[in-house]
User: Fold these one by one.
Assistant:
Number 1:
Amino acid sequence: MKHSSDFVLALLTILCGFVVFGKGVFLKFTNLECESFDKSLTSFDKCRLKALGRHNVSLNIYIKFNPSLYPMNNIKINAQFHQRGSFGPYIYNDTMSFCEFMKNPKRWMFWKIIWEAILPATNMNHSCPVNHDVIIKDLSLKEDMMTMIPFPPNTYQIRLRFFNSTLPGFECRMHLTVY
C-alpha cells in the first residue's frame, strides 16, 4: 500500500511539473513602461501593449532618436531581470556594450535568448552604429520560449536601460507573467 501511494505522489509531481514547465505554460505581457531621461535626445512615439486575445498581448515600441546629439556607436545597456516581490535582481544584472553584444551575443547567453525572441519583431537586425529610429512591432510571447528558460509561475520584470558615458539615455520596463 505504501508503494502505491508513493507511485501516485510521483505521478502527480511529474504531471504538475509538465503543467508548470511544459505545454500548459502561458506567457503574457502585463505592463510596459518607457522613460526617456532627456526628451531632446530620445522620445517614445509609441510604448504600449495591445490585447490580441485572452492569453495573447503584443508589445509595441517606437523610439525616435536625435542622432546628431546622441552618439549611437557607444551605447551601453544595463539589463536586469527581477521577480515580483524581490528587492534585488532575481537572476541577472548585467551592464554591457550594445555594440559588443550585437557582434558577439553568445557572451551573454541569457540575454541572447531574450534578444532572439525580440529580433523577429524589430528593425534592429544589424550591429553599430544605429542611425535610425528603433521599432518593435507586435512582439508576442509564445509558450515555446519557456523551453530555453523554464521559470516558475510568477510575475517578472525585464528592465533595459540604454545610456552612454556622457549622456542620459532611456529605460524600458517590461512586466510579464508566467502562469
Number 2:
Amino acid sequence: MNLNTKNKPLVEAGLIAAMATIFVLVTIFIPVLTILVFILPVAFIILGIRYPIRYTVLSLITVCIITGFFTEVVYSLFLFVIFGPIAIVMSYLMSKKRNEFEVIIAGTIAASVSWFIAIHIISIVSGINILDQIAYIFKESIYAQLDMLNQMNLNSELRINEAINYFISIFPALIIIQSMIVSVINYYLSISVLRRTNQYAGTTPTFSSFKLPKHIIMGFFLLSALAYLSQYVQGIYYENLLHNITALFMFLLFLQGISVVLYFMEKSNLNKVFKVFILVVVILMRTFLTFVALAGFIDAIFNVRKFNKGQ
C-alpha cells in the first residue's frame, strides 16, 4: 500500500502526459481545434496542485518528447517554452493558496515572457523577422476583406500602412493581453475541474466582482507621464510606449466594464439565455466597446457597484 502511495504521483504524471499528448496531436491534425491548445496548461496545473512541482515538469518534458516523434522537434520545444512556465508558475502559486489576482498576474507575466522568448528563438533559427511576417499577413488580410486590390487609391494605401504600423507598435501589448486571457481561462478551468472532482474547497469570486486596484487611474497617468519623458532618452521610442500603455489600460477598463455589465445583469430578473445574448452582443459589437470601457472607467473612479474599499 505504501509502495502504491509513493508511485501514485508518478502514475498520474504519466497518465496526464499520455492524455496531454493525445490532446496536442488532435489539435495538430484537426486544424479547427487548434485554438484549444491554449487550454493545455490546465492538466499540468491540476497535477502541480496535487503533487510536488517536479512531477509537472516531468510530465511536460514527456509530452514534448513524445510529441516530437510525431511532429517537428521545433514544435514540441515551442510547446514547452510557451506552456511550461505558465503551468509551473500558476500551479505552484495555487498550491500555496495564493489569491486569484496574484495567480493570474503571475501567469500573465510567465506567458508573456515565454512568448517573447519563443518569438526571438524562432526569428534566430529561421532567419525570418516574425514582425515583418505578421505585418505582411495583416496587410493581406485587410486587402482581402476590403476587396480593394483593384481600386486602391493613395489615401487608402496610406491609411492601411498607418494601421499596420500601429498594429506593430502595440504588438507587445497584444502579447500581454493574449497572455492575460489565457491565464484567466486556464485558472478558472482548473478550479472548475478541481471542484468537480472534490479537490477544491475554496470559493471562487464570479467575474461580476472583478475590480481593478483603486489606484489604477493614477497609475495609468503616472506611467504615461514617464513614457512621455522617456523621449529625452536616446534609443527609446516614447510613442510606442504610450501606445502600449494605452492599449493595456483600455483592455483592463474593458474587463472591468464587462464585470459591471455582468453585475447589473445578475441584479436583474432577465432570462439567463437573454443575459448571455446581451453579453455576446456587447463583446462582439464594436459599437459597444467604447461604452463598456467607459463603464469600467466610471466604476474605477466612483465605485458604482459600491464594493467595500478593501475589495
Number 3:
Amino acid sequence: MPSPTCERTVVRGNKVTGRDLLVLWQHPVTRAIKVVGRLQFDGRTYTFGYTNSAEESFDNGFRGLPGLRARGRIYRSESLFKVFSQRTLDPARSDFTRHLEQLGLDEASTPLEQIVHSGGRRAADTIQLLEVPRALNGAIESTFLAHGVRHIPTRPLNFEDGSRSVSGIEHERALRNIQGGDRLGHRIESGNKSNPQATILTSSDDVPLGYVPDVLVRGVRSVIDRGESIEFRALRVNGPDAPPHLRLLVRMIAHSDQRDVFDEADWNFAAGSSEDSDER
C-alpha cells in the first residue's frame, strides 16, 4: 500500500491536523539512523506500518516496536498507539509548562506536535521520529531538530573552501545569539564518511551549529542542485541546560516542482502489507 505524499495535508481552519512522520531507528553500535516505519494521522485515524527500508534494519538487529511487531501489517487506531503516546509530555508533571516552552509549544499543542518538536526521543532509547515535509501555504515545509549539535565543537569540519574548527565557547555564543525566525545558512561537509551529502546549518556569520537530519539531505541537495529555493529558519533555541538534541529547532521551507522530492519510495509501507484495525 503506497503512502500519501507530503501534499496530503489536512488543514481545518488555520490549524494543520494531518501529520505524516517517519519512525527512525539508530543502530546502537554504528549510530547510523535508518527509516523503519511511518506514522500518519488524517485528523481522525492514526496509521502505522513498517516501510520498505525497514528490511535492512530488521536484518541488523532492529526487533520492531512494542505492540506493533507484525512486519506485514498496517495498523489503524482512533487513539495514538501506546509506543508513541509514551513519547508525549505528561500534563500532570510539575515541569510540563517548562518542557512545552523548550519545544516552542503551548498547552494547546497536540500529541503529534509534541513529538515533531521533541523528536519523540526517550532516555536510553534507539527510536526517534521526524516529520515528512508537507505541502503547506504553497511551499514544502518541515519542522525538525538539528542533529549532532553537541558534536560540532569536538572535531575539525571540512568544507570545500577549507577546514574549520569551532570552539565550545564560539559555538555556544553563536547559539545564544540566534533569535526565533532568524535565517540559517547551510553548507555541505566535505569528506563526511557517513553521508557524502551531510549538510551543516550555520549562523548568519557562518559559525557551524548542527546538521540537517541525514534522511532529509538527499531531498535538500536535489532542490538546491535544480536551482530551486530552500531556506532554514530557527524556530526555537534553548540554552545549555536543555538536552543537546533540543538545542535548535528548525523550520525548513522549500519551493520545488518536484512533488515528491522529500518522500522516497523506500519510505512507503512495505509491499504486501495488509490492513489491520487492531493494535497488537
